Amino acid sequence: MTLRALPAALLLSTGAVLSGSPGARSEALPLAPSLTAPSTAAPSVQLAQNYTFQPADKNKDKDKDGKGKKPPEKKPPQKEGAPPPNAGQQYQMQQGKENAQKQKQLQIQQAKERAQQQKQQADQARQNAIKQKQFDMQQAKDKALKQKQDADAARDNALKQKQFDMQQAKDKAFKQKQDADAARDNALKQKQFDMQQAKDKAFKQKQDADAARDNALKQKQFDMQQAKDKAFKQKQDADAARDNALKQKQFDMQQAKDKAFKQKQDADAARDNALKQKQFDMQQAKDKALKQKQDADAARENALKQKQFDMQQAKDKAQKQQQFNLQRRDAAGPSGGGMQFNRAKTDQEFQKARERAQREQTGSSGRGGDFEKWRSGSDKKFETLRRERKTREVGKRNFIFEPDKRVIVRNDNRTYIRHDESQRLNRVGRELRRERRKNGTLMVVTMGLAGALIYSLQDDEGRVLRRTRRDRDGREIVLLDNRRYYSRSDYSPFGPERYYDSYVDLPPPRIRIPREQYIVEYDQASPDDIYDALNAPPVDDIGRGYSLDEVRRSYPVLERMRRVDLDSINFDFGSWDVGPDQYGKLERIARAMQRILDRSPSEIFLIEGHTDAVGSEIDNLSLSDRRAESVAVILSESFGIPPENLTTQGYGEEHLKVLTEEPSRINRRVSVRRITPLLSREGWNDPD
């Protein structure tokens, strides 16, 4: 505790004694025995009044910097020739001492005033506080005396260190001056040496140049003489060569005459032989042409018979498929054969199929791989959707409306499903805006992959009239344009009916390639096989270009293109969701698509959904359409295939690979085709 802090300590100890808490009194410092002796209050007060606290003057022996007061500085003996002390420095030192003395007196005065104030406050304390204060003051005096002794020792050490440092600095400065003088002398000597070296080098270079010039002159004279001698020798050689050439020319001319005469004789003989060979070849060609004509006639007759046979086979297959479908509809009763949608009958078929899937889940029949996997709750979404279906009849057509803008149309013997593809585009990208045009159509702008903008011109039912893509670099790509198709007089995109029969009936295509190339089984194919199948042209003449709806709803048109069948994607019963563990199965076909799109970014691929014949026709059609859409979304989200380059369509149980009403994994499949060659390009350049 310093002397300056001593009054504050006395005040704190006094406050502890004066406080009313027993704890504070018990924690006070113990008093000396002499200070705790019993006494009256009056002498204690008198003692406090007579006592005047004199704080120790800490700054007595200190200068203005707080350091110990310096003793008279012993000036070192001045060397001969050293300059006298600066008068300005002496004046500054004197001023500093005076300022330090004034500061010291001011601090003493302030300390006295604080001590007096604290004394007045301390006089209010009890007798025990006065005794404790005297004891603390004695302790503080002892400590202050010790601190003063330490300060004096430190001041003496600092003074000695400062004198030592000043002597060291002087010695160092003198040494640096000597080093600088020596360095300046060395630099002057080096400069004189370098100048002499440069002069000697220049004189040597001049001598070398004179010698080189003399040598060059001698060499030039020697070269000129050599050139004259060479020219004379060359002239002699040229004269001899001219004479030899003249002799050789005369000899060659004679040889050429002899050779020409021999060649004329050979040519005459060859002409005669060629004439004979030509006559022989002509006779051979006539015989060969006659043989080829006979073979061509036979091949044409065989091809005609084969074509008739193939057409008959295709007709038989189509009739068999149609009869199979009719038999299923007849067996299904009103829900399958009539136009009226029988909800109760459809629910019965769905319940029957679900119970069968539950029974066969264990695989006890030995055909567990042909059954769809049953998982509790997997068909919950489909059951909700089925309950929300609404029906309406318009003329001879029956419409079944599902809650997500899917419509199942039943007309005569054909049933198909249509959907709004903008929902799939929004799942992958983000819809930016919708613009209603004067003609009633709707322009939907969607953000696609990599910042591309997709412009889809639609009617009220979501049918795509035109679709283009504008990439980030400003390039615009027309993907499809069906405006001329929908502008025909027999189609009305508005009003209650909004229907146009897009079915196109074509004869079966003639397949001239092996079946494994026409229908590629995905699990058994290599990446090149998949790429070749998707990149191949139509297998038969397509007649004309078609609209997107005509292509999707007319299987005879689709059969002109090769396809890839995937039956390895497994769906749970009544579900269209694909688990992430199955995404990798689509990697190879996604790579093949990307290879084609890198070459031609306007290509369109159709993702087809097919089911087996278990359950009702309506449920299978709805499930197949949703499953095809799920695969398309995975191709876009997980493998980067632009969604606008894909289109989907469900066909349900209409096109079975194996005609059976039993569960069949082969029939439950997803197929992929490239349909760009089938699409009409009429009106692509028409203005919007």
Summarize the structure in words.
With 688 residues, the chain is an alpha+beta fold. It has a domain of 346 residues: OmpA-like domain (60s Ribosomal Protein L30, Chain: A). The chain is 54% helix and 11% strand. The protein contains 16 helices and 14 strands. A 5-stranded antiparallel sheet has the order 5-6-7-8-9. The longest helix has 206 residues. It is flat. The N terminus is likely disordered.
CATH topology of the domain at 333-678: 60s Ribosomal Protein L30, Chain: A
Main β-sheet, spatial strand arrangement: 5-6-7-8-9
Average of the residue pLDDT scores = 81
What is Rg? 58 Å
Amino-to-carboxy terminus distance: 96 Å
Poorly predicted sequence stretches spanning 5 or more consecutive residues: 1-53, 333-338, 492-497
How many individual β-strands? 14
What kind of sheet is the major sheet?
Answer: 5 strands, antiparallel
Order of helices and strands: HHHHHHHHEEEEHEEEEEHHEHHHEHEHEE
